[in-house]
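Handout, page 2. Input:
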Amino acid sequence: MKLVAITSCPTGIAHTYMAAESLEKTAKEKGIDIKVETQGSVGVENELTLEDVQEAHAVIIAAGTTVSRERFAGKAILEVAVSEAIKNPGSIIDKALKLEAGKQNLSKQVEDIKKKRSEERSGPYKHLMAGVSFMLPLVVAGGLAIALSFIFGIEAFQQEGTLAAALMQIGGGAAFALMVPVLAGYIAYSIAERPGLAPGLIGGMIASQIGAGFLGGILAGFIAGYTADFLKKAIKLPRAFEGLKPVLILPLLSSLVVGLLMIYVIGAPVKGIMDAMTAWLQSLTGTNALLLGTILGAMMAFDMGGPVNKAAYTFAVGLLGANVFEPQAAVMAAGMTPPLGLALATVLFKNKFTKAEVEAGKAAWVLGISFITEGAIPFAAADPFRVIPSIMAGSAAAGALSMTLGATLRAPHGGIFVLPIPNAVGNLVGYMVAIAVGTIVTACLVGLLKKKVSEV
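Output:
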């Protein structure tokens, strides 16, 4: 039998491809023919054809974002979390093979799909991550463009007509200006699909214009999405006028609702919260900075790319638009530490790891320096009660040191590859010390807690 699958994680960077590889490798071991389409940050790759779908016994959807299922009508569909496809691919494939395919149980399949869609759309986290996944490329491109402008001097962009000014216009004037509207727009899109996009973008732009920042954008996205979804279901028109709903009635009414609420009700209080939070973060020193860094660091390692990790990362990324750069430095340092610490542990304590894990440690070096925290997942899955506390402690140490030493980071991604860019990192030496200390703490704790591979 043949299977087809789609993998897609909120950021579309690591989990998407790790899940695909995991499913393909396990299917090959079982002698099962499988084709996996990845919907990552670069778009759709290895796209499933109509022939692939028709030949498949069942469809596996391993996703943390909204995935269209219209092309799979009549097929048995198994939906799982993307992390589950990484950890338990064999179990997932076995379940998919046991599903009843085709029209034998079509009515039940349709009902199940509708129920799951309804459950997914009731989850605010899923909608938030959909917005973040579309916002992230803008933040990364914009942040790196801004960082490149600093090669010519920290204030060189102020001179019009220079390359530094052009880079700043690309990064700050364009990419960062779109950050909040796109975040809000695709939160709303995740909730209400196409009718939510226009009011979400409009609400996000208003949030950006009035200084409500990413918090205002998140609220605008949810208000726009749920408003558009409600109106879509509530407004009933004669068939002849039904075509007016998506192009005129829904965009206008939902945009007016979210726009007026942002301008007259929500905007000012949220702006006040953002201003207060920004001022507090900019004034952080000593114990307060250490505590925030510890919390952010531990969150980054807790689920290695899961909801808690993404919450910390989203918080830090959102603050870049408010010119608060310390949390981003702490978050990236803490996110690099888990795979780096485990890679170091496989070198220092080889008797605590299997041969396969030692080999995986070599790849973990590359993943770690690239700020791909998910590189720690295979180790954590094999021994969670020893590995997860160890990497949380190491990441907490890295985050705490980064904040305490006042390290700043203007690029939201890139790992060590952004470090050579002049002025992209503030207190570069202190930042590198934070990463090194976090890595060593992780490795030492893993070596202390893990048992030798011969022990049961």
